[in-house]
Amino acid sequence: MDILQIVFTESFWAASLRIATPLIFGVLGALICERAGVLNLGIEGIFVAGAMSGWMAVWLGAGLWGGVLVAALAGGFFGFIHALLTVPLGLSQHVSGLGVTLFATSVSYFTYRTALPNVSSPPRIEPFRPLDVPILSDLPFVGPVLFQQTALTWLALLMVAVVWYVLNRTPLGVAIKAVGDNPSSVDAQGLSVYGLRIGAIVAGSALMALGGAFLTMSAFDAFFFGMINGRGWICIALVIFASWRPGKALIGALLFGAFDALQVRLQTEVGALVPSQVFLMMPYILSIIALVIAARGADYPRALLQPWFKGQR
Amino acid sequence: MIRIEPRQDSGPLLRYGVPVLSAVVALALAAIPLASAGANVVTAYGEMFSGVFGSIFAFSEMLTRATPLIFTGLAAAVAFRARLWNIGAEGQLYLGAMAAIAVGTGLFDIPGIFLLPLIILCGAAAGAAGMALPTFLRTRFGADEVVTTLLLNFIILIFLQMMLEGPIKDPMGLGWPQSPPILDQGMLPTLIDRMRVHSGLVLAIVAAVIAQFMLVRSVWGFRLRAVGENASAARHAGIGVNRLLFSVAIVSGALAGLAGVSEVAGLKGYLTADLSPGFGYTGIVVAMLAGLSPAGVVLSALFIASVFVGADSMSRAMGVSSYLADLVVSMSLLCVLVGGFFARFRIVRTRVSAGGA
Questions:
Q1: How does the protein associate with the membrane (chain A) (predicted)?
Q2: Predicted-assembly ipTM surpassing the 0.90 threshold
Q3: N or C: chain B end with fewer CB closer than 10 Å?
Q4: Of B151, B285, B341, which has the smallest distance from its Cβ to A237's Cβ?
Q5: How far is CA B272 from CA B94, B125, B189, B349, in A?
Q6: What is the pLDDT of residues B76-91, one digit of tens each?
């Protein structure tokens, strides 16, 4: 069977992991925000901002890691706007998030156009190269799959562990989860609900922006309009699928990457029979299916979407 | 200590003043990107103003731009009032446009007096179906309609591209992915000779008036607001919440579908995959700026359309990127959100006193 042969090739899994990388960053970022009780629909725009600002920093000569830092700062900045609107002001998280998406997207597009008014083909940068990790690269099967990945993919995998550790093994993580479940109890312990929520949103948004930066600095080497193409929204669906757990977020993103890599390969096999658009639709349809499956038993953070004001019950 | 407390009564000055002030602030903030792009700020504002009010043609262009925004703004306003988060107006617009093309390009070669209503009805129905599905997924499976409507936008756009390369591709279109034109008698008539503004605008204003009346005066509108304010209380009061949400979904989707009909049958005549430069998403800003009031939607659509048309003309004259318009639109959303907060709450300084809580 053709499909089985595809699934057992190293290049297939290497592609899956590559497709999954921006989603891992995005899902982790969205997960942190939601664990603290705030839905962040700014994600789509924050992806755009991360992709644009990271690329532009490298293009201006900041170096690749300089670009990563700039992307994270840009993400944190737009996250901070969302945090101000939704936490101390307690405004609708839906509308504020969409506003941040529109704002971050238009700032990025305007900046790009202003810096490069008349380019027919977007300028390219020298992107991240695959990272050779001495011992791991020599492992059978796993070695070649990982060997083809860049440092940003490694960073994404590392962040899964870091976010898991912080959420489950540190007092800070306990406080973040508590602030998303029962903010008043956190307040009663003398901790700052506002501080925790704002911090979580800023940190989560910085992570999201790295997902965008991966696209312009590792997967591709240039910035295009419309290149994010709903990846942020897919992450929002995957968070629910992952039931707000970093480990399951990794699995969800990898599964998604695998399906996407599979459809690209199927497209070359049966491309003549089925219009290519059917395959292009698949990621979005899959996300909706994943959401429908997961939504029933979803254990939402209890204070998600609920504003909390100090001194009010 | 600083405390936030709700205002007892936000008077008309605050209710109408906040959106106007937000719009003005957002426009004023545009000076920052204008200056950073190296443009003369005063000249730029002048160009924007004359780009809208400088001639009858410019004004007609603004009204043309406002027409789809009234529809998508109404779609968002009606749904958001019931806390049904329809972020899918962009997709529903294309569904409406596709339906208009499906019935309007020769399938039925009947007189305009029958064809035009048929096109309008089919477009509205297609848009309504586009919102009924995510609403079903929410009421039946609990799948968040924000995410499903957003994702459906992408699915529908890809579906449109598929249709434009297949079933509805114009054989006379020289290979371009575009549909055949709508029959002449199926086109919405223009309002002024040699101007592009068309009777879709009249349709949009009528829709706004009906929506305003239904929302404020009808039993349906009363129930809708009750569900929006407190769904569980509404359920206890005997309102069938799911049924109501479906009716809201159908109205909201139909309005978004009409935006597509009006663009195709009023302006372009044929369908391409770039029919809408984000009218669906901009409709959300229009609705929020209008305080979710259908009557207000007309005014805020005129403002947003002015920003777009004015910025376009300024961009042509001065070489500043026309993404400035999107920037102003998004800033006016953020401003009106913050302004809405200060209309509903006030910040009070309180002295910390012993034992007070």
A1: Multi-pass membrane protein
A2: yes
A3: C
A4: B151
A5: 10, 20, 21, 57
A6: 999 999 999 999 999 9
